[in-house]
Amino acid sequence: MMTGQLSDISAICEFAWYDWVYFRDGDQQFPHNHERLGRALGPADNAGPGMSQWILTGNDTIIPRQTLRQLTPAEVNIPVELHKRTVFTDVIKKKLGDSLNVPEKESDQNPFENSGDDFDVSPSYADDDPGEEHEVPEVDDKYINAKVLLPVDGEHMGSAKVMSRAKDTDGIVAGVQNDNPMLDMRVYNVMFPDGAERQYSANVIAQSMYANVDEDGHQYQLMDEIIEQRKDGTAVAVDDSFTFSTAKNGKSVGSRKMTTKGWFLRVRWKDGSDSWAKLKDIKDSTPVELAEYAVANGIAHEPAFAWWVPYTLKKQDRVIAGVDARVKKTTHKYGIRVPQTVTEAYLIDKENGNTSWRDSVKKEMDNVAVAFELLPEGDEPSPTHKHINCKLIFDVKMDITRKSRLIAQGFMAPTPSKCTYDGVVSRESVRIAFTYAALHDLPVWAADIKNAYLTAPCSERYHTVCGLVFGSELVGRKAYIVRALYGLPRRGADYREHLRSCMKETLGFESCRGDDDV
Q1: This prediction's pTM
Q2: Closest by alpha carbon to 485, among 415, 412, 408?
Q3: How many domains does the chain have?
Q4: How far apart (Å, rounded) are the C-alpha atoms in residues 133 and 318?
Q5: Residue 37 contacts by C-beta under 8 Å, 6 or more apart in sequence?
Q6: What is the CATH classification number for the domain harbouring 195?
Q7: Which string of b and e fits 157-186 if b means at least 16 CB within 10 Å?
Q8: Neighbour-count burial of 32, counting CB atoms closer than 10 A to its CB (0-12 exposed, 13-18 middle, 19+ buried)
Q9: Are residues 108 and 223 in the same domain?
Q10: Does residue 266 sit in the same domain as residue 347?
Q11: What does the pLDDT look like over 272-313, one tens digit per residue?
Q12: Does 250 fall in a domain?
């Protein structure tokens, strides 16, 4: 008031002193609840974003949080929530005392151990003091071991690998974490191919990750030169470079096999790094340079080159105008190496010294366990069940979280006897529904069903053989597929029929005459 300007008192009006609140804890991982019980202690000035409040947590630490809420009327009265608050109060009183009693001597035992309460079971890495930073285990750090393009000396970009968190002279990790990547001020040690090590903040690394990838998270690279080549046992031999067929006149006609299978090139990229790439990828991006390399190194007669090199050199002006010189790096997403098999995933974890991919595989297998009915050891499946293989595919999400998905290789299955059509609500129906909601001031709700297809029974009969992903003790065992597993030909139709049945028979809904999917 002394400055003559109105002050914003929103931060002190929303919560009373020592109010019960639920605040968001970003350290909690699924399936644990992200909300934790706490006590509001007032505005956290200069310790976080606007409207932040100091929160007293269940393990007697005080932290600033912006995302918090008051208890709902139902939470105030239900027995479960009353018990949580009682346990919380008892622990705080034991740790900090009250106005009449001094706190008891601290014990090394976790106060919530075996208490049955889940709101403060996991350890917290929140700051005891806003200026004090606690070291977080690097095995859980999403940036460690990522490969990214980073600015070097302010002039050009260089490929580098994130090695570890940087520490100050006292051995304390530098920087403070923030859920927003652009505000994350942690500092990392980064190593370049020449062995030079520099320090970059997390927001610079995150910005580089997203700025140098396409919409699918794949990074593009520009080739500098081809260093060497190699081929494996799957490459076509010179003696087997033609396929023969019989013409109408009875003569045998030969044509070259158009394949690049089995050939790999070691390439040096513009960012200074080098790696092995498939011949197909280099041919699609820099065909003329590759053709000249093949001629210069005496390999243009090989079947993988002979069918396209002469034409490329002859029509090189037209070819150059029609290609994109960038090579998509499909082995990585957002700088994170993406495995192709379970064995490779475990090997990457071993090299990185963490369990990121292993945890992702375990989470997926726990979710899809309901889709399989394991047969007793030694039993064979019924002849009426068709065999189908299952495969685990891997991905990296935009928040650098590793993702695994078990799918059935439906392309190997015979054509289903029933329709595979999966209905979709028309755009006109969606517009009508939104318009109706707007006219009558109705709220619009949206929801997501986790592993939706796995809630529906499988209408076709399939069985599979358990691989390493099911666990080493189950390798070779047979199992029936009893749910609409991802990849099955009728997965969409099975889920649609199951959802319609639940909505009609259980919830009492009826289909609209104008749109059967509404």
Answers
A1: 0.49
A2: 408
A3: 4
A4: 59
A5: 20, 21, 22, 58, 84, 85, 88, 119, 120
A6: 2.30.30.140
A7: bbbbbbebbbeeeeeebbbebbeebeebeb
A8: middle
A9: no
A10: no
A11: 677 888 888 888 777 888 888 888 888 888 888 888 888 887
A12: no
